[in-house]
Amino acid sequence: MISRSILTALLLSLTARADVSLPSVLASHMVLQRGKPVHVWGNAQAGESVSVSFRGNTRTASANDIGKWSVSLPASEAGGPFELVIEGRNRIVLDDILVGDVWIASGQSNMEFTLKEAVNGAAEVAAATHPRMRLFHVKRIVADHPMDDLEATWVTCTPKAAADFSAVAIFFARHLQEKLNVPVGLIDSSWGGTPAESWTSLSSLSADAALMPVFSEWSRMNSVLTVTKLRRDKQLAEWRDAVARAKADGKPGPGFPWKANDGGEWAPASLFNAMIAPLTAFPIRGAIWYQGESNASKERAPLYKRLFETMIQDWRRAWNQEDLPFFFVQLANYKTGPDSRWPDLREAQRQTLELRNTGMAVTIDIGTPTNIHPPNKQDVGLRLALAARAIAYGEHIEYSGPTVERATAEGSVVRVAFKHTSKGIVAHGGQLTGFEIAGKDGVFKAAEARLEGNEVIVSNVSIAAPTQVRYGWADNPQCNLFNTDGLPASPFRTVE
Question: What is the model's pTM?
């Protein structure tokens, strides 16, 4: 015989399953993407009829045999606030909804880097009252298969909400709002110290045989995780004892003994599954990305171009938008270790511009050589926003510093031509620096470089017949080529 308590629990469970529910990304205070069908979906009792109403339009759907339902309403122009009403067995009213542009901000710690940590952080936080900017900060989590929901809440951008949100994303959105005058929704889904393969689906990674080293590297890392965990469990126990002793003595305890990357966040697809896949049914305008540091090792850097391009195309398929705008930050100047491959990683990022509807914010001039997290995120956000304005919104503005177009050997010199130089190029600080050339032997030597119109003439008296040229090819290079719009040239390397 079923007890009263068990029967009550079963009835409550059935009632809960019968109620219409929504994923966390569909909530009050959200921003819906203008110009695209308004997609609303969720769960209900199998067979239940669910209606959705927004801005005078209503659509109805029935939940399928596993309780999933989905409707699309007509595309909507920018504006708000509005209400969105969902009715089935229960009634849900979402209010204070804006229609504008939604951007996802992702990557590792430099995207996570908070507004309060940026240059003039206290003042930036105090000024961060933007009623038409909405923030959605995804909680860190991993998964071994694609999830259909995640943990986050839409909030209006206030100083309190903005303080711990991505500085790059807020500066990016602030500039767009100033120029476009539309609401902006920001989805921050980032995790410090993570590689690009964690943000890429297993289906895309496994479809390319050239990406198999991704799995072999994870296998190598995974094989030592048990030993690492045992060692860290011992450290953790010792740390807790030390904290307890310090507390008993009335003294401050020691800092936490490590920052780990052993929670599964390096596993291929783990972050795509948990922190990207649940968002892909929500229409967006585009993506901004700041990552690469964790892929700049000698093992991973050679694969980055193929991996990064795969990830971008993967996201485009996931959002069912083959031309989804994707803008990313090239690694800044920084003094790295002897085994790093930051120049190679930057070159892979530059080459990714071959994909349509992409843009790159060069930051080789605004890094901090001794800090992997440079605090000047204002210029990073601005440069990403310039790329978005030009490429995603079609404005006729300069959005990039000089990028190499061709390098032509002419006897003892190499003539280098650049794009994004319509108003001219300059050397900041006097003599042009950062160029090297090599002959047939492939040995690069420092070069003399001079401006000739919008081109650079490069030479070295000891190299009679140069065949290759490179610029800014170091972890912390001294290079100073800009266009007259004030944007720095990207480091590059030509191949014979």
Answer: 0.91
